[in-house]
């Protein structure tokens, strides 16, 4: 038995404008060299352009985009007997599950992506 206390579970903070954890997760993914305010500016500018162009809620568009990036199936290594097999498992159909979709985000901190997000549509 451990002598230490149990660690407190950290909850992801939401961003100040949209009050959404998904936006904050995307900001943290874009973050480069600790410039969080610049990452927020890029995301908010992109969200504003999405709203102007599509006339819909930008959070809805963001959720759709992340749902499109998230794979439907994946493989896990299972040890059976003495050998390891790749076993297919399906993701459950739920609203966006950040731990599952986060590894499948494209690397948005590249300069090309910065140029794409900051260009007028």
Automatic annotation (TrEMBL):
Domain Small ribosomal subunit protein uS7 residues, every copy: 2-87
PROSITE patterns referenced in this protein's UniProt entry, alphabetically: RIBOSOMAL_S7
Phylogenetic placement of the source organism: Eukaryota, Viridiplantae, Streptophyta, Embryophyta, Tracheophyta
Highest taxon of source: Eukaryota
SUPFAM superfamilies: Ribosomal protein S7 (SSF47973)
Pfam families: Ribosomal_S7
Keywords: Ribonucleoprotein, Ribosomal protein
Record family assignment: Belongs to the universal ribosomal protein uS7 family.
GO biological process, one term: translation
Protein name as it appears in the record: 30s ribosomal protein s7
InterPro entries assigned: Ribosomal_uS7, Ribosomal_uS7_CS, Ribosomal_uS7_dom, Ribosomal_uS7_dom_sf
GO molecular function, one term: structural constituent of ribosome
GO cellular component, one term: ribonucleoprotein complex
């Amino acid at each position: 038995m451990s002598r230490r206390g149990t660690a407190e579970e950290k909850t992801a903070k939401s961003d100040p404008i949209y009050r959404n954890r998904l936006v904050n997760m995307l900001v943290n993914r874009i973050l480069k060299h600790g410039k969080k305010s610049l990452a927020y500016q890029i995301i908010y500018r992109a969200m504003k352009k999405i709203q102007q162009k599509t006339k819909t809620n930008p959070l809805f568009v963001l959720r759709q985009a992340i749902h499109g990036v998230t794979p439907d199936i994946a493989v896990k290594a299972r040890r059976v007997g003495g050998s390891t097999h790749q076993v297919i498992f399906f993701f459950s159909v739920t609203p966006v599950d950040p731990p599952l979709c986060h590894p499948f985000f494209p690397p948005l901190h590249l300069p090309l992506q910065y140029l794409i997000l900051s260009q007028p549509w």
